[in-house]
Amino acid sequence: MLNRIIVYIGTKAISTYRDIMDFINYIISIILSLKSLKYMRFRSLYNTIINQTKFTGVDALIIVMIIALLLGGTIIIQALTSLPKFGVENFLGNLLVIIIVRELGPLATALIVIARSGSAIATEISVQKWSREILSMELVGIDTKLFIILPRIIASIISIGALIIIFDIVAFTGGYIISQTVIYIPMSDFGRIIIDAFTFKDITAALIKSLIFGIIIPTICCYYGLKPLSKFEIPIYVSKAVIRTLFVSIIVNIIVSVLFYL
Description:
Blueprint lengths: L1 H32 L8 H17 L2 H22 L9 H39 L2 H7 L4 H36 L7 H11 L2 H26 L8 H28 L1
Helix pairs in contact: 2-6, 3-4, 3-6, 4-6, 4-7, 4-8, 4-9, 6-8, 8-9
């Protein structure tokens, strides 16, 4: 029994090590492909960036605003009704900024993008890999890392940064409007409380999170999208892409918060 456990742990450790090294080599190959950027036609990259930005950012705008409205309204109502009971209503602005701007806005936006666009990226590339489209591009001398992955990274950085800003604005303004159905607070007082609670560190942390999310989401999803060798492996690697991107995004969110606020 003990031997089986040792063999199982050893096998998993070796497999994990190989996966990590393979991913590191994948990242290195993306960085090295940047040398070929001067040989690429800008229009081909530009069209992909525009299409991916539209899909990741513009098309996701409605769902992001709805979720921001609902979450913002719930948080603000709970804060306005619960904090006075404990005599800490003076910390209302700080609490809302901590919850919405520092944590909820970046993380909720990233989770929406992963569930919607990340899975689509992994599926699209998996189908291209299975149908030999990627192989055909490589045979005619196209750097697929540069042509497929780089535009998606740029589009994700732009889209996630914009969506986080929109999420925060809708969460505060829409949440405030919803909260007026439960408890009244003058708009001027609410705005002053929020503005006074904002710091440059909050804005910087949110921007850094948006930048990191914009890089890791398409990078990991493209990595697993390039893995399938048959059509039967496509759903397996798509699910791996979504789950592991979710895990890494949550870890990154925690690390950035710890570095900035502890």
